[in-house]
Amino acid sequence: MASLLELKEIFRSADAVCFDVDSTVIREEGIDELAKFCGVGDAVAEMTRRAMGGSVTFKAALTARLGLIRPSYEQVQKLISDNPPELTPGIRELVSRLHQRGVQVFLVSGGFQSIVEHVASQLNIPTANVFANRLKFYFNGEYAGFDETQPTSESGGKGKVITLLKEQFHFKKVVMIGDGATDMEACPPGDCFIGFGGNVIRKQVKEKAKWYITHFDELLKELEER
To answer: Where in the sequence is the active site (predicted)?
Structure first.
């Protein structure tokens, strides 16, 4: 098991950094915001808490939550335009610094492609570097389920994405940063997990993560030291 010093060295010399999105890169949980927007906020927030704690499988929780929300194409687009996701303080500077160092940055999210792509565009992250769940709609815009072939739709999916990135780009060191159990589970195959508690603290993650931060400035300082 790597020590904290070794994890910091991996971060400073990483080829790629993967960020979770909900409650990490952005302040809110996208699915909870969508649920509120569609009038079923409380019921869905409780399901999210259970999923984040790792007590139900991610796909089961996602299926149940979306079954309650049943968002239309129009509602998703209106949410993005009326209530755009709020970036977490420090993330813009951190991503910019990683880009300056030639590090590839990816957004790996159990959230929804359309919302995550909006976030990516604000951070100058190419769409090709976004891995998220795709909602499906009927021709009239009504909810038709989600693409269950996406690796991010199931437990262990973020690890599958990292394995894919390593195979495709021959990355030697990949870092995963996030607030939830699904992020922590991605290491291995990820080489370093950094728990993030700047928006919400998940007890299980805080207790188990060797490296736990509450502000992205802490990571910027690590990069400045080299």
So the answer is: 20, 22
